[in-house]
Amino acid sequence: MTSGTAAHLMPLAIAVPVLVACLMVAAGSRLPHHVLDLLGVATSLTVCALAAVVLTRSADGRVVTWNGDWRPKRGVSVGIPLVADSLSAGTALLIAGLMSCALLYSWRYYSPVRGYYHALMLLFLAGMEGFVLSGDLFDMFVFFELMGIAAYALTGLKIEDPTAVQGGLNFGIVNSLGAYFSLAGIGVLYARHGQLGLAPLGQRLTEHRADALTVVALVVIVTCFLVKAAVVPFHFWLPDAHAVAPAPVCVLFSGVMVELGLYGAFRVFWTVFGSAVPHDDIRGAFLPAGVLTAVVGALMCFAQSHLKRMLAYSTIAHVGLFTTGLATLTPEGTAGVALYAAAHAGVKSALFLLVGVILARHGHVDELKLHGCGRDARFVSWLYFAAGAALAGLPPFGTALGKSVTEEALTRAGHPWGPAVFVAVSALTGGAVLRAGFRIYLGAGPAPDAGGPVAIAAQTTGIEEHRETEQLSRTPRTMYAAVLLLLAGGLAVGVLPGAGRAFDHAAEGFTDPRGYAAAVLFGTAPAVGSPHHESTWTAQGVVLGCVSTAAAVLLAAAAVRAPRAPDARRARLRPFLRSLAAVRALHSGHVGDYAAWLLFGMTALAALVGVLPVDG
Amino acid sequence: MNLYAYGVAGWLLLVGAFGVVRSANLVHAVVSLSVAQSGTYVLLLCVGYQRAAGAPVFGSTLRPSTRVTDPVVQAMTLTDIVVSATVTALLLATAVQVHKQQGTVDPNRLSALKG
C-alpha cells in the first residue's frame, strides 16, 4: 500500500463516524438496541483500522491529505490539509481504541434514549479524530467545538440528575468562552500573516521576530487548549463534568480528551510559534503551571470520597505531570509523556469502568458508604487493585515506564526536583484510589456508622449519583472484557519490546517543525531523524516506580486505619488542613467563578510568557 | 474606522466574559457568551475589510483583477455563527433542565457540585 492510499483513508476516519451518527439519529427509534450497539462498535473498530493503516505509513514519513486536492504550489498553499505524523496517528488510534472499549462496555446501556447516546459518542469520536489529524488552525477550532458540543451533551445525558445538567452547563460555558478567545487569537494571527495552516504560519513566523502581538496570539490561542487540558487555574470544570458524566463517557474524557488539550497546545507551539517565541519563556510558564496543577490535583484527589470525582482530580494531577514533561521541550520529555499518557489512558479508563460497575451494582459511588460492599467481588477487586497500583506507577505497567522516562528527561534538562514531584504525586493519587479499594473490597477500617470518618456536608459526595443502567444482579461479560482490554493495553505499553523506540520516533517527529513544514508545503518526506536517546527501563526508573507504589500502599493503609491522632499532632496538621479546605472551597461549582479564573489564568500566562525576564 | 472596529471587537469579547463572571442567571450567562462570540465576528470581518473593495463574487460585473474583501474570514465568520447557534441552543436547553431539576437558574443558589 502506498502512502497515497493512506492519505485517501485519512478523511474517512472523520467522515465515517459522522455518517453513521446521522443514520442512527434518523433511524434510531426503529432499530433494535443490539443493532445500534453493533453498529457503534463496528464503526469505531473501522476507525481503529483506518488509524492503524495511517500509523504504519507515517512511520516512513508524514502522511498529508489536501482536501479537494488544493495542493500547494512552490510552497504557497490555499488548501486545508490533514497531516499525520506518528504521534498524531498514534493518538488517533488511541482515541478509536478507547471509543471501542467504551462502546463495548456500554452494550445494552441507555435503552431509553435510543440512538442518541450512540450517535453522540460517534460525533465525539469524529471531532477528536479531526482535531488530532488537522493541519490547520481554524479547522482545529472547528473540530474542537465539534468534540466540545458532543461532550457537553454527553455530560448532561442523565437529564433527570440535577448535578449532571449543572456539570454539563459549567463545562459548556467555560470551554466555549476559552474557545472564543482562541478564535480571536486565530483572527489576529491571520490578520498579521494571512495564513491559517500550521505549516505556512510557522514559515511566516520564522521570518519575523516575536513581537507583542505574536505573544498575545500565542497566549490567547493556547488558552482554549489549556482549558480542555484542565491546567490550573483552568481546571475547575473538569471534576464537575467527570463526576456526573456516565462512566463510559468518562473513559474518553479522562483517557484522551483532556490530553488532546495538551496535544493541541504543544502542536501549535512547535509548528507555529517554535521559531519565534524563545523556548525559555515557554519553559518558564509551563513548568510552574505543570507542577502547580500536579500538586493541586493530587491533594484534591486524596481529599475526595466521591469515587468519580477522585478519579477526575487524579486526572488533573497526571495532566500536571504531563505538562511538566512536555515543558522540557525536548524529544525525550515528549516521548516520556506520550508513553505515560498512552498507558495512563488504559489504566484510568479501566478504573472509571470499574467505578461504573460499582454504580451499576450498588446505585451510588460514595467511598465511605460503600464500606465492605465489595467483599464478595473477588475478581473485580483484583482488577481494581492492579489498576490502582498501575496508577501509582508499579512496574512493569506502561505508566511506570512513561514516568521513569519523563523523570530522567527532567533531570537531564536541569530539573533535579522532577522525580520527587512525580513520585509524590503518583503516590498520592494511587494512594487515594487504593484507599477506596481497601475500604470497599476488603472492608478495612472502621465502618462509617461506627465512629469512622464522616463526610462534611458542604461537599459533593457520591451518595446521590444516579444509575446509568437497570440494577444488575450480575455484571455482564462485556463490561469485564472492556476493563481487561484496557488494563492489558496499559500493560502492553510497558512490556512490549520496541514500544519505547516507537514513542521516541514519534516524539522526534513531533518536535521537528522543519520536517513538518517540508512535508506539508513541499511534499518532500524527509526521514525523521533517528532519535539520539532510547526510552527503556532503567534501574532508577524501576526503583522509583516501586517506591511510589509502596508509598501509595502505605498512605492508603494509614488513611484507612486513621487512629484518632493525639491532639498535639493534629494541631501541627491544622494549618495544612485549613489551607486544603480553602483550596477546596475555591471549587465552588459557580460558573461565574470559573470564568473569572479563566480570565485570571490567561493574564497570568501572558505575564509569564511575555513580561517576565528570563535568566540566561 | 478600522481601529474603531477592532476596539468594538475587543470590547464585546471582554464585556461578554464579564457578563458570564457577574451573571446571576444562567440564561443571562449563556447570552453573555453569545455577546463574547459576537466580538469574534466583528474581529474576523474587520480583518478582511478593505476600503472601496467589492464583495468577493466574481462574475459579469466584477472581474478577477479587481480588489475584493477577503472571503476566507467571511467563511470563517459563517462557520463561527453555525457553531454559536449550536452551542447557544444546547446550553439554553441545559439551563431549562437546570430550572426543572433545581427550581432556580441563579448560579449562586445552585449547590449540587462543591469541593
TrEMBL record, chain B:
Listed GO CC annotations: plasma membrane
Tree of life domain: Bacteria
InterPro entries: CPA3_antiporter_subunitC (IPR050601), NUOK/Mnh_C1-like (IPR039428)
Membrane topology reported for the UniProt record: Multi-pass membrane protein
Pfam family, one: Oxidored_q2
Predominant cellular place of this UniProt entry's protein: membrane
Keyword match Lipoprotein: no
Coiled-coil ranges per UniProt: none
Entry's family note: Belongs to the CPA3 antiporters (TC 2.A.63) subunit C family.
Protein name: Dehydrogenase
Native source species: Wenjunlia vitaminophila (Streptomyces vitaminophilus)
Taxonomic lineage: Bacteria, Bacillati, Actinomycetota, Actinomycetes, Kitasatosporales
